[in-house]
Amino acid sequence: MSFFAYRDGEMHAEGVALSALAAQVGTPFYCYSAGALRAAWHDFADNLDGMNAEVCYAMKANSSLAVIRLFGEMGAGADIVSEGEMRRALAAGIPAKRIVYSGVGKKASELGAALKAGVGQINVESAAELETLNAVAGQLGVKAAITIRVNPDVDAKTHAKITTGRKENKFGIDIDLAREAFALAGRLPHLQVVGVAMHIGSQLTSLDPYRDAIVRVRELIVQLRADGHRIDRFDIGGGLGIVYADETPPSIADFLAVVRRETDGLGCALTFEPGRRLVGEAGVLVSEVILVKPGVSKTFVIVDAAMNDLIRPTLYEAWHEIQPVRQRPGAATFRCDIVGPICESGDFLAQDRDLPPLSAGDLVVVRSAGAYGAVMASSYNSRPLAPEVMVDGTRFAVTRPRPSIEEMLSAERFPPWLEPVKT
Ligand SMILES: *Cc1c(COP(=O)(O)O)cnc(C)c1O
């Protein structure tokens, strides 16, 4: 079932016309389908039958409180990468025990906040972090439950900027150095080693890298146990791909079948940290055409969403489908770039697309924008952050309103030595 579809020639999110939302909240805006979010969650959670496993939503993909709450209601934990994300997860009602704290550079203050809040597991990524965490835990008089994230050196065959499991990436501890790190962790009195973690990349469309990585980490777990460590948990990370264009990402069932097979008999509880897979296809970005500018070599459709709203096209060379909100059956298409108003040549949403004729005031929808969209937005060019709306059947709610320009300006201060502005 598609949660974003044309009905009577108009693109809807479930039972709500995107044009109706645009009239109410203005453009650009992000729209999430609660039904699509729930379906993605169930696709994962309902396939875990008989596995000793938990799903911690990697909230950096979309940290909207409403989205986290929706997953939390269905039993999700959270995978966080900062104190701010921890506060969001707690504010959305995720129990601290179900929070996993990942990240390559956690500050002592952040580790302290996590221990005070009682987060369930901290995934440590370096020897230096082991020492820092041990010291912080000692000061607080607690024992920190940790895994060590290892870097299994496999090629996830995804975009270079979202590959994380190669030797040359900054993430995790080289699998060849992992035993030393575990030995150090074992000597530190305020750490409690509970397992091993990995996360090899994002937007993976093949299961082979997972299989290779799990096989390597499995061998490591056997060695670590022989070294005397207690390894009860294996955190597999996230990374499953979604459909942007014509990708064929593996089904959750196939993914879990591989995990089941490769971890069979290992006796580890499993943690999954899906991000993109749970939210990516459940969100769209809606924008209005400002003007159409015919050029010598190509036509530019200038829309009111830009790279500050959705940076993926220019940052990752990502391809997002763009569709008119009002269908134009039979209309001849024309080739164009869909670009924003920002003063950067890299400010585009799509290049060389064949779209039906568009003119000022028409609405377009950017598909599969639910992951790494709104969370990566900035207010570059003093453009207010695009609001976020959640649709559920025929209901909708603005879950983050667009800030006014006054609100944006009032967050700043003049240095006292500058002449006051005459009003
Ligand atoms: C980003 C990240 C995830 C989620 O990745 P997706 O590709 O969005 O599933 C999971 N775990 C860790 C440690 C991450 O950094």
Query: What's the overall geometry?
Result: globular
CATH class of the largest domain: Alpha Beta
Strand content: 25-35%
Please give the CATH architecture of the largest domain: Alpha-Beta Barrel
CA-CA gap between termini? 57 Å
Total strands: 21
The overall pLDDT average reads 96
Class derived from helix and strand content = alpha/beta
Total individual domains: 2
Ligands in the model, by name, code or SMILES, are: pyridoxal-5'-phosphate
Oligomer: single chain
Secondary structure tally, helices: 12
Biggest beta sheet summary: 9 strands, mixed
CATH topology of the largest domain: TIM Barrel
The radius of gyration over CA amounts to 23 Å
Low-confidence stretches: none
Essential attributes:
423 residues; alpha/beta; Lyase, Ornithine Decarboxylase, Chain A, domain 1; TIM Barrel; 2 domains; eight-stranded parallel barrel; 12 helices; globular; binds pyridoxal-5'-phosphate
What's the short version?
This protein is α/β, with parallel strands linked by helices and 423 residues long. It has helices at residues 18-25, 34-45, 65-73, 83-91, 108-117, 127-140, 178-187, 208-226, 252-263, 276-279, 312-316, 405-410; strands at 4-7, 10-13, 16-17, 29-33, 53-58, 77-80, 99-101, 121-124, 144-151, 173-174, 191-197, 233-237, 269-272, 283-294, 299-303, 322-324, 334-339, 348-355, 363-366, 388-392, 395-400.
